[in-house]
TrEMBL record, chain A:
Polar residues composition-biased segments: 1-17
Identification of the protein by name: Extracellular solute-binding protein
Gene3D superfamilies, alphabetized: Periplasmic binding protein-like II
Positions of the UniProt region annotated as Disordered: 1-35
Protein species of origin: Isoptericola peretonis
Xref: PANTHER family: ARABINOSE-BINDING PROTEIN-RELATED, BLR3389 PROTEIN
TrEMBL record, chain B:
UniProt keyword terms in alphabetical order: Cell membrane, Membrane, Transmembrane, Transmembrane helix, Transport
Annotated transmembrane regions: 38-60, 101-125, 137-158, 170-191, 212-237, 270-291
Name of the protein this chain belongs to: Carbohydrate ABC transporter permease
Membrane topology category: Multi-pass membrane protein
Localization annotation: Cell membrane
Residues annotated as domain ABC transmembrane type-1: 102-291
UniProtKB/TrEMBL annotation, chain C:
Classification via Gene3D superfamilies: MetI-like (1.10.3720.10)
Alphabetically ordered keywords of this record: Cell membrane, Membrane, Transmembrane, Transmembrane helix, Transport
Species for this entry: Isoptericola peretonis
Name the record gives this protein: Sugar ABC transporter permease
PANTHER family recorded: ABC TRANSPORTER PERMEASE PROTEIN, DIACETYLCHITOBIOSE UPTAKE SYSTEM PERMEASE PROTEIN NGCF
Predominant localisation class: membrane
SUPFAM superfamilies in the record: MetI-like (SSF161098)
Topology versus the membrane: Multi-pass membrane protein
Top-level taxon of origin: Bacteria
Cellular localisation: Cell membrane
Residues in ABC transmembrane type-1 domain copies: 100-312
Length: 472, 307, 320
């Protein structure tokens, strides 16, 4: 018993690493000379060390904190999911903010995008070492905020840094709220839009006097325009790759469904409700579009953008984030909001925003530094806009510099009619929901099933999600 | 002079073993496939082809890693027209956390190996050479736990680590990996073969149990301990699932987890990807080249659960 | 190392089969008990292992079982007991069966070549032809790579248009093949990668077994005038029967636990066509936060592995 007490202090105390060290030392060569009694004591120590997982844990975690905090600067870690051009721009913005705040060490880490990113973020916030801030798709907020994984923003602290509600588009600001509090600080709006090749669109007579795409509203007008471009290219008119791109399918569908006035009711525990007629009309239109003339049959995303970039189609449906890629292929590439196929103004969009993961040990100094960094990043929006995103912080959009950016300014209006994913815990960018939705419509889009069957399958999948208990 | 003498004896000994092995191999060839030069040529050709196929992915990765980024993204060519470069390595070593993850991997693998070998050997020794109350029950539980696939425990283990505050700590990565009932049994079977007279004699001399273990059993079992250690080390160095679950802070990630979770903000860069892969692959490959015989033996004896 | 590398607790979570190794001497307990009996400190030696096993294997097993009867979530701190609801849901969840099928399908696809190719490699190397070091190195080297490196290399080879495989196929006027993007191909590609990666392990086991065949048998056969092929079929292969049985079982158990390479290469895609059940557990638990339900799925899977393990233990008992 004596030995136990003797060692337990070291084992469960603040510096258990000593116990471990002692064990190793004593059980070394000198152990050979010990008598029976002594050896038992060592064994007991060994047992305690081996067994005291928790205590040893303390030791290991204690000696293993790799954080270099000797510089006296406050370190702020931000996770993002940007790679490619976006990633480079984010690095540039972080660099600018870090330069303006020499007392803060900004550490930005890019994690693999998609479900893995949100999974890691949730796991970090629920027991690990979460970053001080993280980029999140606004469409995922409904799944995050209720679970208590995030902290709301302090509006007063933001206002002190010159960031207030009137600096954001109302639709975006509203989407960033949960339970009456601001949980997401919007960085941008990124709509799903229509790019065009000015030469081809021009030859097909589809450019307005201002050089913008001018296609009359309505499904028929759009299909005619597609055929006109197909005549110019000798192949197809519109690039839309729906195979192996479930998220793209869903974005197109949900945008058009909203244009067609469709509403929804996704209440957990109740069957999903959609305007089935409106949804079928959307599929009828898409089937008509994928006829081998307006748009190619059985085309995937890679082939679609390949055709568009090699001047073999005139219009391409894609996220504005593809702008840098298209501009590399054709510096004159133009862009406009998603065409008006149905009556209501609507444009599918999502928004990158910053969130504050819940900290197990809140640190006021870090919090203050984090706010400064985030406000700084919002104000670097012009850099961000060069990749195609529409800055959420309106003062940036209003600058003459932004108004000279083409084609960005030509689709900036899409933000005003932005529709996001439906509100539910399971929806949003990079979610399983989008994949399931997209997968349910592939057969219909390739003509192997009827529009009605796609609607049935979508409802079935929605019901499956709704029948699962909300995790929060 | 004694040193050089012993070195020269060692070299001579090595040379003679090498000669001996060569002679043995010749006999083996005769015995297995016979003396026909055609059959021999056929078998050799088959070996060359399969070995080439097996080295191909590594070779292709290595070639890519020494190319300029722009050229790496062009359709496959083995010989780059723009010449070779170390750019990718410079980028990866300079800008990423690769070395940090490597260090984490090393720390984790060493800790897992040391702890696993130690506690497994102690338990095996107790099962083999001592009697105590509940021995058979514990032994039964150990056998039973061999059947428990650790993978299915990721969910409760994560929750447990969360409760203990061990998420994103080395302890959280290491501790669940040190439970290796199979190793206890491999070691126990080896310890069973230690002559009882040897231990009894030591006991009569008044040696304590710890001393029996430390000065007799362990030294006698060096070969199997090394085999177990090698096996555990390879497993721990390469383990993905658990470190992937229990680390969220990139600073604590091990090499495989970091490589696959944290992305280069500047986009997919093939040469750099391959350079990272090569750097990650190198340590174990080098160790293998140096200690091939030992490792081959270790894996073969340990891999079957000591059969 | 499909499983060994993914294994949590042990680098090899493989059941040991107690055979009579050459080194092991059957020891009569009574013969040495006189002195051993006085040594009662054994429990101290078992303690570290026992506590570690209790904390990190047995307790999570019990705790996980409890969780499977609750609606525990990753994010919430409270949970309530919901009886067998999770199990009822699991049995009617088509994804459970689909992912279970993927796991079994992968196991079948990978086990056969992993055994056959390993045997062929070992037979070729066991000819004693020059270059032993090189052959062993080439066949075993991939096993030493971590899954992250394996999947980087593989996705680089499989890269559409610029990957080595597609480029070579194009030269032959074939392809392109959607290695990881075509639902009908992806699982085969993953099995191919797995064979490349882990066959070296089985190869070493076979090689060790081959080296255990007494040379006199070959010599006797040679004197009897048996040719190379005769010796292969009448001496070598028959003696590989037992070890093959063992390797097959080890491999099946390892392949059933597949996660790493699938998660890293396709993340279960395209269209969920390669998602194994372990990834479904991960997705359910950590991506959808439903720890309780994920636990229930794990236990359904565990029950299956357990039945498999017990079934294979039965004949062993009869033999003994």
């Amino acid at each position: 018993m004596k030995t136990r007490q003797g060692t337990s202090g070291a084992v469960s105390g603040s510096r258990p690493s000593r116990a471990q060290g002692r064990f190793h030392r004593r059980s070394g060569p000198s152990g050979a000379a010990d008598d029976v009694g002594l050896s038992r004591r060592h064994l007991l120590q060994a047992a305690l060390v081996g067994a005291g997982g928790v205590a040893l844990g303390g030791a290991l975690s204690g000696c293993a904190t790799p954080e270099a905090s000797g510089s006296g600067r406050t370190s702020v870690m931000i996770w993002d999911l940007f790679s490619g051009g976006d990633g480079a721009l984010m690095q540039e913005m972080v660099g600018a903010v870090a330069k303006a705040n020499p007392d803060i060490a900004v550490d930005s880490t890019t994690l693999a995008w998609g479900a893995p990113y949100y999974t890691k973020l949730a796991m970090a916030s629920s027991g690990g070492r979460p970053p001080e801030a993280a980029v999140m798709h606004m469409s995922r907020l409904a799944g995050y905020a209720p679970g208590g994984l995030l902290e709301p923003f302090d509006l007063d602290a933001l206002a002190d840094l010159g960031v207030t509600q009137d600096h954001f588009a109302p639709a975006v600001w509203e989407k960033a709220q949960f339970d009456g509090q601001l949980y997401a600080l919007p960085l941008d709006t990124h709509p799903y839009i229509a790019f065009h090749n000015p030469a081809i669109a021009g030859d097909a007579g589809l450019l307005g006097a201002d050089g913008r795409l001018a296609i009359a509203p309505g499904a028929d007008a759009f299909l005619d325009a597609g055929r006109a471009m197909a005549e110019v290219t000798g192949e197809t008119g519109v690039s839309w790759g729906y195979l192996r791109d479930p998220a793209g399918c869903w974005r197109t569908f949900w945008g058009l469904y909203n244009q067609n006035g469709g509403g929804y009711d996704l209440t957990p525990g109740k069957p999903a409700e959609l305007d089935e007629r409106a949804a079928e009309e959307v599929f009828e239109f898409l089937q008509e579009m994928v006829d081998g003339t307006v748009a190619a049959k059985n085309q995937d995303g890679g082939a679609a953008s390949g055709r568009f970039m090699s001047d073999r189609t005139g219009v391409m449906f894609a996220g504005e984030w593809d702008l840098p890629m298209f501009r590399d292929a054709n510096p004159d590439v133009g862009a406009s909001p998603f065409p008006a196929i149905f009556d209501q103004p609507a444009n599918y969009a999502d928004s990158h925003s910053f969130v504050l993961p819940r900290q197990a040990r809140p640190d006021p100094a870090k919090r203050e530094a984090t706010y400064r960094v985030l406000a700084g990043l919002l104000k670097e929006g012009l850099t961000w806009a060069s990749a195609g995103h529409i800055p959420a912080y309106q003062p940036v959009v209003e600058t003459p510099e932004y108004q000279e950016l083409t084609p960005q300014r030509d689709y900036a209006s899409a933000a005003e009619i932005a529709v996001f994913d439906p509100d539910a815990w399971f929806t949003g960018g990079g979610s399983d929901f989008q994949t399931r939705m997209g997968d349910s419509m592939t057969d219909t889009l390739s003509g192997k099933a009827t529009p009605a069957s796609a609607v049935t399958r979508i409802l079935g999948e929605m019901n499956r999600f709704l029948s699962q208990p909300s995790p929060a | 002079m004694a040193v050089s003498e012993s070195v020269s004896t060692m070299v001579a000994a090595r040379r003679s073993t090498a000669q001996q092995t060569r002679a043995e191999n010749r006999t083996l060839t005769k015995l297995t496939i016979g003396p026909s030069p055609w059959v021999r040529a056929g078998a050799l050709a088959a070996l060359v082809v399969v070995a080439a196929l097996w080295l191909l992915p590594l070779a292709w990765g290595a070639v890519t890693s020494f190319k300029h980024e722009a050229e790496a993204a062009l359709p496959a060519s083995w010989w780059p027209s723009q010449g070779w470069t170390l750019d990718a390595y410079r980028q990866v070593l300079g800008n990423s956390e690769l070395l940090g993850w490597m260090w984490n991997s090393l720390v984790v693998a060493v800790l897992v190996t040391a702890l696993t070998v130690l506690i497994s050997a102690m338990a095996a020794f107790a099962f083999s050479q001592t009697l105590f109350k509940g021995r058979s029950l514990l032994q039964f539980l150990t056998v039973a736990s061999i059947m428990m696939p650790g993978q299915i425990l990721i969910v409760p283990l994560f929750k447990q680590m969360q409760a203990l505050g061990l998420v994103d700590t080395f302890a959280g990565i290491v501790l669940p990996q040190v439970v290796a009932p199979v190793m206890v049994f491999i070691l126990k079977r080896f310890f069973d073969a230690i002559p009882a007279e040897l231990l009894d004699a030591a006991r009569i001399d008044g040696a304590g149990t710890w001393r029996l273990f430390w000065t007799i059993v362990l030294p006698l079992s060096r070969s199997i301990l090394v085999a177990v250690a090698i096996f555990v080390f390879i497993g721990a160095w390469n383990n993905f699932l658990w470190p992937f679950i229990v680390t969220t802070d990139p600073q604590f990630m091990t090499l495989p987890v970091g490589l696959s979770t944290v992305k280069n903000a500047y986009g997919v860069q093939y040469a750099q990807n391959m350079a990272s892969a090569m750097i990650a692959a190198l340590p174990l490959l080098v160790v293998f080249m140096l200690f091939q015989r030992r490792i081959v033996q270790g894996v073969a004896t340990t891999g079957m659960g000591g059969q | 190392m499909t499983a060994s590398s993914t294994s949590l607790s042990a680098p090899v979570a493989r059941p040991s089969r107690r055979g009579t190794g050459t080194r092991t001497r059957p020891v009569a307990d009574t013969a040495r008990s006189s002195l051993r009996a006085r040594d009662r400190s054994g429990y101290l030696f078992v303690a570290p292992f026992a506590v570690a096993t209790g904390l990190f294997l047995l307790w999570p097993t019990v705790y996980g079982l409890w969780m499977s009867f609750t609606d525990q979530s990753l994010t919430a701190t409270e949970s309530s007991f919901i009886g067998i609801d999770n199990y009822v849901e699991a049995f009617s969840d088509p994804q459970v069966w689909t992912t279970l099928w993927h796991t079994v399908w992968f196991t079948v696809l990978s086990t056969v070549p992993l055994v056959v190719v390993a045997l062929l490699m070992a037979l070729l190397v066991h000819t004693g032809l020059p270059g032993q070091w090189v052959w062993r190195m080439s066949f075993f080297a991939p096993f030493l790579l971590t899954s992250a490196v394996v999947s980087s290399l593989a996705s680089w080879l499989f890269q559409p248009e610029i990957g080595l495989l597609d480029v070579w196929l194009a030269k032959l006027g074939l392809g392109p093949v959607g290695w990881l993007t075509d639902e009908n191909v992806a699982m085969f590609s993953i099995a191919l990668v797995t064979v490349w990666w882990t066959v070296g392990f089985n190869f070493l086991l076979y090689l060790a077994a081959l080296q255990g065949i007494p040379q006199q048998q070959y010599e006797a056969a040679t004197i009897d005038g048996a040719g190379g092929w005769r010796r292969l079929f009448s001496i070598t292969l028959p003696q590989m029967k037992t070890i093959t049985g063992v390797i097959v079982v080890l491999q099946l158990l390892a392949s059933l636990k597949v996660f790493d390479q699938i998660y890293l290469l396709t993340a279960g895609g395209p269209n969920g066509s390669t998602r194994p059940i372990l990834e479904y557990v991960y997705d359910m638990g950590f991506t959808n936060y439903r720890l309780g339900y994920a636990s229930a799925i794990s236990y359904v899977f565990f029950a299956l592995i357990l039945v498999f393990t017990l079934v294979r233990l039965l004949p062993t008992k009869k033999e003994a």
